[in-house]
Amino acid sequence: YTVKHSKPKEKICLRIEVKSPREKETNEKTVAREKQRDYLWITMDRLNGPPRLILVTDLDCTLVDHDDPENNDLLRFSALWEAHYRHDSLLVYSTGRSLRSYLSLRNKKPLLTPDIAITSVGSEIVYGGESMVSDDVWEARLDEMWNRDIVVEETLKFPQLELQPEKSQEQHKVSFFVGREEAMKIMKVLPGILEDRGVEVKLVYSNDYAFDVLPRGAGKGGALTYLLEKLESEGKKPSNILVCGDSGNDAELFDIPQAYGVMVSNSHKELLQWHEENAKDNPNIILASERCGAGMIEALQRFNLGPSVSPRDVLDSENFQEGILDPAHEVVQFYLFYERWRRGEVEKSDKYLQNLKSLSSPLGIFVHPSGVEKPIHEWTDELESLHGEGKEKQFRIWLDKVSSSHISSDTWLAKFDKHELSEGKVRSCSTRVLLSCQEEKQKLMWMHIHQSWLDDACPDDDKEKWIF
């Protein structure tokens, strides 16, 4: 092609490339792979090397105990993870819930932000905690030999199968309610019917009612295997893996050869039966004596995977520092004492307030989320009037996404989100704490605290009760 130019004797030549649909599709897949790799590296970026531990856990009735309205064991696990594991390990949620349902649960329970979430029984993988970026490469892989319309058409021919609500349905998951006896019969014939129509599936039955039809490569085990292969290919193979579950759709997790596994004591009978038939002689898979989060903590101890005493189980509120010069442990323990003070679980004694003052610099400043600035010692004095006022309000505090960076030889900057639950309302703020090491006293000194409301959610009441 030629284009006229202002100088008649000169020409500008344009080269136009037309790519075939196949070339375009190949390029799109390459871009998707690179984009997905970037998301994984964003997740891994806070680690200095391969993860020390990848903890993979189901949510309902494993990490989350719906029979415990106080969420005691969930909070115990959260404090343990943030104090001792977040800095060099990965937390992965693997749930049968859809992404929407999982996010709804997070609004109701004090769940930590995971590094990776595997949702819809392994048919979707999202990265980056709050950013929730889907893995397009994984979804493209599941598209092979899968046709949702055909699956729906053929399954509707079984009147015993009752479609679950629309919120439980996903592109790569078709879900039903059905009794165990009927489910066993259908599982024998449905794969062959679909295979004759060019669709290869995996059937997962759990909790004596949930029947899920997935692409052949999906499932919690398939998704975890995919992630582990990706990490290994990038030279980030984890030192240890712990999988935790309670129901039939978790069984695949325990098939990961290199993983330790714990079935919590409240596990469903289909998982217990799987254990009896497949893993009763495997020392790397245990049935915990404790339920839910407590069983997960038990497994950390049984397999010697790292610290297994939650800061919530350390009751010495007067000397909670214990000589551990670790910023993450420090901030978790500080806020646990603060919670106990507000709940009236420690004695109303001036010695506790004086101990708190000894942990902060006399010149230290606290910037309240409202923007008000005061010396830390003045805020500490205001605690006296709040002793025990949260006792009847189910007052709880938990920290999330705790990280620390060494900004000089003896100074750390700790970052985290702090959440307060009181009378059913959650107040949240982003927090930055400057800590200085006082080696002669073997403790960390709080030099500066700065907080800001998360999501511009400035509470319109009880402002005066937000301290630290």
What does this structure look like?
GO terms for molecular function: magnesium ion binding; sucrose-phosphate phosphatase activity. Helix 2 (72-84) runs parallel beside helix 9 (292-302) and helix 2 (72-84) packs antiparallel against helix 10 (327-343). A hairpin with a 4-residue loop joins strand 19 (425-438) and strand 20 (443-453). 31% of the residues lie in helices and 25% in strands. The chain has an eight-stranded mixed β-sheet with strand order 7-6-5-4-3-12-13-14, sandwiched between helices. Strands 16-15-20-19-18-17 form a six-stranded mixed β-sheet. The chain has twelve helices and 20 strands. The longest helix has 24 residues, at 21-44. The protein has helices at residues 21-44, 72-84, 99-106, 136-143, 148-155, 180-196, 220-233, 269-278, 292-302, 327-343, 350-358, 376-382, and strands spanning 2-3, 12-13, 53-57, 90-94, 116-119, 124-127, 133-134, 162-163, 174-177, 201-206, 210-215, 240-245, 260-263, 285-287, 360-367, 373-375, 396-408, 411-422, 425-438, 443-453. The N and C termini lie far apart (69 Å). With 468 residues, it is of the alpha/beta class.
